[in-house]
Amino acid sequence: MLVRRWSVKWASKRVPPSTLILYRFLSSNKDDDVQKVLGIICSTSTPEQLKQSLKSSGVFLSNDLIDQVLKRIRFSHSNPSQTLEFFRYTGRRKGFYHTAFSLDTMLYILGRSRMFANVWELLIEARREDQSLITPRTVMVVLGRIAKVCSVRTTVESFRKFKKLVPEFDTSCFNALLRTLCQEKSMTDARNVYHSLKHGFRPNLQTFNILLSGWKTPEDAEEFFKEMRDMGVVPDVVTYNSLVDVYCKGREMEKAYKVLDEMRDRNLSPDVITYTSIIGGLGLIGQPDKARDVLKEMKEYGCYPDAAAYNAAIRNFCIAKRLGDAYGLMDEMVSKGLSPNSTTYNLFFRVFFWSNDLQSSWSLYRRMMVEGCLPNTQSCMFLIRLFRRQEKVEMALQLWSDMLEKGFGSYTLVSDVLFDLLCDMGKLGEAEKCFLEMIEKGQKPSNVSFRRIKVLMELANKHEALQSLAQKMAKFGRPLQVHESMESRET
What we know:
491 residues; mainly alpha; 28 helices; 71% helix; globular; disordered N terminus; disordered C terminus
């Protein structure tokens, strides 16, 4: 009772220091509380069950805890309807206000599940309760989900709806639309929308930087650069970096170097991003050694390479299949106090994957783990696909165990390949164990994976275990019937 009594007061926007101290005393392990709330959301099926379970849990529902819960749900496939009930229930408490982060994350979860009617309902509720929560970032979150599955026309119509929702429907919102179109549609779509709507807004430096950053051809970038100057908008380092990047990707290195000269003439110092583009461009024209020299030359201008710059140089040598030079640069990174990241390792994993080099991949993975660099999803996919190709069950299970323990990679993507391997090898016990471990983490296995395991369990006459798995899967949404046919596969 003491926890619940304090929760409403602490969750308000003004918190005295003494209350913070009391909160730390009452909730010593926030991660456990987050996991407990996640379990409640996944295990309850009605709003009333959710409400009662939260009340009896004794968990202190602070802004920070809610932010963390929604963040984890965003990267999983927990029931979006129950998540929305959780969001509304916590928001209805007297004196409590959701953060902008919570609102945007909830909108992302709904949009990902294509629950767009709920998206607009929630936005209207937010406008009524605290309109300041609806920001240009909110606009981009919502439009990003809509643009992913709807037409450009529908995306623009949705953008216009925000005119009645955001406190200021200005250029920052226009920029959010353009950024969304650049990411989810095409640069041609972004250009057309820009020209059709630009008279209703005042394009600024950010507008042009958004548009310039996405072009693949120098001609298109030059067109916008000219319009920018004609409007009196002064380019900055970001603008010039976009030009350098497009020239480098177009293998027009002479033009790229001319932009560097213009930057220096305007007393704008090229930064590490500028030089990273140059390094990448030199690699594209087959000059990895000259690109490596740029790492040294940039220091003369007071600009020191970071991990991304080294990664660009390493990529050049990996493409040229000069792995000795690539490893030498990675060692040089370490000597300079820079830690290789997952992107660095993925450059090697890609080479090993295509050359079917299991031993080198495994050795590199073990090195990552020893050095404390957690693999990302791409790393895991290179590995798990190689394990499946060579039918290495023990290595695959070790990767899965490390993922569960360390919390890296996408459980959903990796598990699909893992379950294929285990089912192909007839490892039903291991497949069932991994399936249950994934559900315990609040992650939804794909329906395809469920149906693969279902076939093996039916053949093994494990009907009760199969029914149990179906019931656990039902917590994530529509109940799966164990008699559903293989012909009705869904992704």
